[in-house]
Amino acid sequence: MSEELKQMDQLFDRLFPIMRSITGDGVRETIHILQEYIPLEMEGIPTGTQAFDWDIPQEWVIREAWIKDAEGNKVIDIKDLNLHVINYSEPIDEWFTLEELKKHIHIIANKPNAVPYVISYYEKRWGFCMSKEQLDALPDGQYHAYIDSEKIDGELNFAHAVLPGKSTKEVLISTYICHPSMANNELSGPLVATFLYNRLKQWANRELTYRFVFIPETIGSISYLWKYGEHLKKQLYSGVVLTCLGGKEQRLSFKQPRAKNTPMDLLIEYLNNRQKYEMPIRPFTPLNGSDERQYCSPGFNLPVGQFSKMVYSMYAGYHNSLDTKEVMTIEALVESVNEIEKLLKLQELNGYYVNLKPFGEPKLGKYNLYPNINAPMLRNRSTNSKIDNRQQLNQILALLNYSDGQHRLSDIAKTLPYLLEDYEISIKALKEHGLLSGPFYEEQEL
């Protein structure tokens, strides 16, 4: 087991039992634990604040929730599974017949061993969740329903951290921290984001700035946009929402932003078409998904897509107790970190470049960038562990000719049969000799 995988596994075990909701101590406790791994700054927006068309709700405080039979035996208890109570439930302390109690119990009929995750953030109601098997096993009789909860004025919390790069143009990495004990649908995003941050922190030369955001879903992204939306409209280059990133032998997929031809869109289109990357593409829709729906709302229309593996609503454990670490696997999360890191590196490389000596070809021999003898048997002799002389020369000639500030690297790379990542060597060589500048993340004039 790698050290990174071990640390991720330990972090999962600390976060999984926490009773999270869109507000309250669960969110704050989650942020405080994550702050041990990355330097998150936590902020709060007070109850009652109007954020666009939404009002920040009161905090939900939950202390106990259980059902007992007539003999005092506990039938269910949130101390055993925090999904057993409706999230944001009102308090109750009454006796009911089984038939009366059933009106307030939620099950999943076609998944008899699963306890559903049910929320009622904005409508006052009380209730419990259990498996169909548990409910069917209850005999007729009297039952004591007890929920010790209240709603108090407080704040909605979120947290963010910024990794600066050479460019002030930003890449948004957003994920949510509001679901109770579910693995893939809740913790895969924060875990991948946390370890991705620490990967990017180690990059020797970060070109772009990276903004990592941890928020309650929907109300959190709306609140974040209310506070930072204008900044993002000016500075955001690209972005992704991280959700549902686990699953054995699952492929990472990309949900496109609402906007067309965004940087990540163009990159993945190139990789799929030219390098047989075969990443599944899901078109943008506001009908389902996560916080990309808010980032892509028409008032902002930000270039924010979404990465997922075991996609929401497409697996048996979605929004229920079958969503476990064993189904998700920590190994799958490490694979997601690996793949997303690679895509972010390629996105940085895939900028615009400018030829600094554009009047005719530079005399490449002066810079030791041209073979000093033009003999067929020497053309492919390797001087680099990754690419040979001929490949490097071809890339250099293409780069110099098309680096007019109007072509992305992927546009240039379409003219040659080489991997996009291989151009990094040639770009570095040209920059070292003062022949090329970039990458830039907007079109440039020569």
Descriptive account of the structure:
This protein has three domains: 3-57 and 155-349, 3-Layer(aba) Sandwich (Aminopeptidase), CATH 3.40.630.10; 59-152, Domain of unknown function DUF2172 (Glucose Oxidase, domain 1, 3-Layer(bba) Sandwich); 352-440, no CATH class. It is built from 13 helices and 19 strands. It is elongated and about 90 Å long. Strand 14, helix 7 (263-274) and strand 15 form a beta-alpha-beta unit. Residues 373-385 have low confidence and may be disordered. It has 446 residues and is of the alpha/beta class. 31% of the residues lie in helices and 22% in strands.
Q: Key terms for this structure?
A:
446 residues; alpha/beta; Aminopeptidase; Glucose Oxidase, domain 1; 3 domains; 8-stranded mixed beta sheet
Shape: elongated
Tell me the number of strands.
19
Give the rounded overall mean pLDDT. Answer: 95
Q: Count up the domains.
A: 3
Physical arrangement of strands within the biggest beta sheet? 1-10-12-11-13-16-14-15
**What is the CATH architecture annotation of the largest domain?**
3-Layer(aba) Sandwich
In the CATH hierarchy, the third-tier topology of the largest domain is known as Aminopeptidase
**Unreliable sequence segments:** 373-385
Give the biggest sheet.
Answer: 8 strands, mixed
Level-1 CATH class name of the largest domain:
Alpha Beta
| DSSP summary: helix tally | 13
- The Cα radius of gyration reads 26 Å
| Helical content class | 25-40%
The H-level CATH homologous superfamily of the largest domain, spelled out, is Zn peptidases
